[in-house]
Amino acid sequence: MKIDTGYPPIEWDQVPDFAREAEAIGFDGIWTSETQHDPFLPLALIAEHSEEISLGTAVAIAFARSPATVAYTAWDLARLSHGRFILGLGTQVKPHIVRRFGMLWPESPVNHLREFVAAVRAFWAAWQTGEKLDFRTDHYKLTLMTPFFDPGPIDYPEIPIYLAGVNPGLCRLAGEVAQGFHAHPLHSVKYLEQVICPALAKGASKSKRNPEDIDLTVSSFVVTDQNEELLARSQIAFYASTPSYRPVFQLHGWDQLAEELSHMARRGEWMEMAAAINDEVLETFAVVAAPNDLGEAVATRYAGLAQRVIPYTPYLPGMNDPFWGGLIKEIKSR
Length: 334
Fold this sequence. Notes:
It is built from 14 helices and twelve strands. The protein has helices spanning 15-25, 41-48, 67-80, 94-100, 109-129, 168-177, 189-206, 226-240, 246-251, 255-266, 270-275, 279-285, 294-302, 321-333, and strands at 2-6, 29-32, 54-57, 60-61, 85-90, 135-136, 141-142, 161-165, 180-183, 215-223, 286-288, 308-311. The radius of gyration is 20 Å and the shape is globular.
């Protein structure tokens, strides 16, 4: 099991130190997200100021971009990082694609993402081999690649693609076409075992692939103090209020709670929403332990399920290094 960290809210001039310290303390990977900033830009600095740690997007929003722009950016980051870059892609939900990014929501997100991934790989293949770009599907007709726009081959052309999702459709797609899957923070062990892992295996079977070749990466709420507890309760409540994530609560029989949280979100009752997450719900979706016991708790929770774990609370350079160093050592020892 590998332990990674998310990219924290830091200034640009802090990125080099963050990259060096995260690698030195023992993290296996650094992941950026598409929330308040572009997910790709920090990775160029991280690649420049690290040597071995993997780096990737968790995630970049595919439907906010064209396959060409993603292919170019990933190609450059793979070259810069000497093959350490992982392209993580997600769909987001319709209101964000339409109202935040100003793009069209596809009729079938799963089919569209399948074509998007294949289109990105078509660019990579053309650049690496020199073969003519000729990719035609329902959504794309990609046939123009003159030498002036061709970046040419690189030493690390096999760029892993991870997909993200919650529901079985995207899980099956990841098993079919991707090297990894990012499980949403709103997950439980039961949901991983009964929904995500079987769907990954079903997708892998469709492509005659071994499910064990697909890395499951989990972003995990961890609670060791009151601040982390409040954050976890707030985020669990926020995610549960979103209809796309409803099946996770339904699996545990908490449909009514999720419905109530949706009504509270519409009324803007954010503090009240956090209070609605009782201890049973919290401990279902978060790893709750004393600081010294967290490593054992994380390792036990995800043993045999996940290949990579990303604590939801990101590492901050120079902040509580003994805790993070101990956590990493404990997880890797198990």
